Amino acid sequence: SQIPVITIDGPTASGKGTVAHRVADQLGFHYLDSGALYRLTALSALRRATDLADEHALAKLAEHLHCSFQGGDIILSHENVTDAIRAEEVGNTASKIATFPAVRHALTGLQLGFRKAPGLVADGRDMGSVIFPHAQLKVFLTASVAARAGRRYKQLIDKGFSANMEDLLMDLQARDDRDTKRSIAPLVPAEGAYVLDTSEMNADEAVAQVLKWYAGST
Ligand code: C5P
Fold first, then answer.
1. What ipTM was estimated for this complex?
2. Where does ATP bind (predicted)?
3. Which residue puts its alpha carbon closest to atom 5 of ligand 1?
């Protein structure tokens, strides 16, 4: 179809959420936070005490997620879980269950459904490589582990969670390892992706760069 898609992939806490959201706002496009879908599945599994090694049960949960995105709020079965899914435990669980092919497969249709006129900005790990391989613009947003840990620390404190810098560094490293080394949809720059290192860049500058690339691609 002709509906344009911009994919913004990258490691955890690289700033892709903020950048993708703002690019979508600027262009009047829809926004897909694909990580939220993995987090919703993880939260669901934690709440139901689903065996986190049971690929089939987890895929079932993913397939039957009752979720909706209303403005900035994320609703799971009538409950506002916008903040709850940001907890570190949920993120870590999400990254574990994301290694299961059946879970990824179960979430594919849901993700494709976000592509609606006038366009979509999709953020995640495999948006450009797997879900939207023909995207008009693909960006791989990255930053040093230290820069990302610093941002995540601030995010957690701002949201009223407690945070410890050393734990965050270790968690980030572990999550990077899992995301880049898994055999299915590993985190790698998609073919044709522009790589943007935001270690020394603020969100305004990153947004401006993505918009510039997009303008050049149309
Ligand atoms: O981006 P976010 O940190 O919210 O994603 C949580 C986890 O979900 C990631 O660590 C990653 O393992 C997984 N994920 C994924 N594919 C995506 C988005 C997220 O595997 N497209």
1. 0.98
2. 10-18
3. 35
Average pLDDT, the chain: 94
CB-based contact 57:102 (threshold 8 Å): no
Question: What is the total count of domains within the chain?
Answer: 1
Residue whose CA lies nearest to ligand 1 atom number 20? 98
Question: What is the 3-class SS of the chain, one letter each residue?
Answer: CCCCEEEEECCCCCCHHHHHHHHHHHHCCEEEEHHHHHHHHHHHHHHHCCCCCCHHHHHHHHHCCCEEEECCEEEECCEECCCHHHCHHHHHHHHHHCCCHHHHHHHHHHHHCCCCCCCEEEEECCHHHHHCCCCCEEEEEECCHHHHHHHHHHHHHHCCCCCCHHHHHHHHHHHHHHHHHCCCCCCCCCCCCEEEECCCCCHHHHHHHHHHHHHHHC
Is the Cβ atom of 128 under 6 angstroms away from ligand 1? no
CA of 186 to the centre of ligand 1 (A): 11
Q: What is the pLDDT of residues 143-192, one digit of tens each?
A: 999 999 999 899 889 989 888 999 999 989 988 888 888 888 788 899 99
| Residue 136: domain span | 5-217
Give yes or no for residue 129 CB within 6 A of ligand 1. no
CATH number, domain of 28, equals 3.40.50.300
What's the 1 CA to ligand 1 centre distance in angstroms? 26
pLDDT at 34 exceeding the cut of 90: yes
